[in-house]
Design a protein that fits this description.
By secondary structure, the protein is an alpha/beta fold. It contains six helices and nine strands. It has two domains: 10-72 and 189-215, Rossmann fold (3-Layer(aba) Sandwich), CATH 3.40.50.300; 74-155, 3-Layer(aba) Sandwich (Rossmann fold). The protein is 33% helix and 25% strand. The protein has a six-stranded mixed β-sheet, sandwiched between helices. The longest helix is centred in the C-terminal third of the chain and has 17 residues, at 169-185. The structure holds adenosine-5'-triphosphate and magnesium ion (MG).
Length: 215
């Protein structure tokens, strides 16, 4: 039996969430439902807690108090992806990790998974970087490779932290197209952004100020 989107359980649900960093409150009093099949933008000034809120949704930051429930298949594209220069992974390897999540770890990829890796590389415009070490990529290129990893894994929840900052117009449009296509596929998309064209693409804009949702 199929269920309509409004009946589906949220991809992530936060209740009464608070995050403190050594006494400094970064996020407070946050109740939030992230819906499948929709794009949510998170806006607000520098230091408002946007990245921290995205990490809370991703499950990578411990809560000081409150609750988080979320789907398992999450693609998280952080604002600055740190990676060791000694990690000998190519861009294709990084994207392939996404597809492994679907087929089971360490299995040989079947032709469908290989196709999904190539498709993800194409959709993010990084096919020509496939053989390049991930650690040598620029910040924006890293973000695109991590987003491609999420596409290859058909994540239910895509979390993007300022993915179009510093990108040229064509690359920004490519990212927005991916966000729209993935939300139409049924994924929940959450994107931190100051970019008016991203905010215009969103179904819902949540504004943070001083760690609190104000609209
Ligand atoms: N790991 C951390 N340790 C200590 N304080 C932190 C840490 N991460 C964030 N903060 C603090 O929490 C607050 C919220 O930071 P956050 O990075 O979430 O803001 P932001 O809205 O994403 O800002 P920006 O627009 O600059 O990316 C800031 O005051 C920041 O200094
Ligand atoms: Mg941030």
């Amino acid at each position: 039996m199929s269920t309509s989107r409004s009946e589906q359980s949220p991809a992530a649900r936060l209740r009464g969430v608070r995050v403190e960093y050594s006494g400094h409150v970064a996020v407070r009093d946050v109740d939030l439902d992230v819906s499948p099949g929709a794009i949510m933008a998170i806006a607000g000034p520098n230091g408002a807690g946007k990245s921290t809120l995205l990490e809370v949704i991703a499950g990578t930051t411990p809560l000081t108090s409150g609750n988080r429930v979320a789907t398992q298949r999450i693609a998280f594209v952080p604002q600055r992806a740190a990676v060791s220069d000694r990690l000998p992974l190519t861009v294709r390897d990084v994207v392939t990790v996404g597809a492994c999540g679907r087929t089971g770890r360490w299995r040989r990829l079947d032709s469908g998974s290989r196709a999904s890796v190539n498709d993800a590389l194409d959709r993010l415009g990084i096919a020509e970087l496939a053989a390049v070490p991930f650690s040598t990529l620029s910040g924006g290129q890293r973000q695109r490779a991590l987003l491609a990893q999420g596409l290859a894994g058909q994540a239910d929840l895509l979390l993007l932290d300022e993915p179009t900052t510093g990108l040229d117009t064509a690359s920004g449009e490519r990212i927005r197209a991916v966000m729209r296509t993935e939300s139409r596929r049924g994924a929940a998309v959450v994107c931190v952004s100051h970019d008016p064209s991203v905010l215009g693409t969103a179904d819902r804009v949540v504004t943070l100020e001083d760690g609190r949702i104000v609209s």
